[in-house]
Amino acid sequence: MACLVGGVFAVLLLCLLFFIRLYYVVKTGSSYKPGTRGPVAVLVVAGSGGHTTEVLRLMECLSAAYTPRHYVIADTDRMSEEKICTFESSKQHSDSEAQFTICRIPRSREVHQSWSSSVLSTLDALRYSLPLVFRLRPDMVLCNGPGTCVPLCVAGLLLGILGMKKVSIVYVESICRIKTLSLTGKILYPISDYFFVQWSSLRDRYPRSIFLGRLV
Fold it and tell me: What is the model's pTM?
């Protein structure tokens, strides 16, 4: 009986320490400035269709200091890789040392997929995201809404919780979201270091968000 009580106490203590560490990482995240000591390794989450187009427009605004660039797409995405390669080919005219990779992980949620099965598919995507993020160890994760970014952001957050490396999570909500956040935005809003919205009505509803006008 004493062993059981001791085991329960140890689990509760570990959970408490985990949430304290999580709170600290999230609260102090915005004070961390990636790039102050050199290049910024950025992990870019691209989704099918408009998500990829928007995130590549964001990438156009970043300087050559954001390198290497690691793009992550869903394994069922057949269009984003071509768009990324075209974009990077145009960048290399001005940046001869540009470095980029394209990685694939399982999609967290397909269109019209049920919520119950989405939990399982997201856990499966997390199984691939953890070793990928732990191997790449980016300075920043940049995403704009595809469900694929959720397990990748969780993996980046875990790096900070474990004290291995602080990974800044930068989320840009889609221009299409005027009054409410997307499901991905609602999930990542509490843990993002920088959460950008493109409509003032969203900034009023979500005080932690940053409104700079239209970004893409």
Answer: 0.85
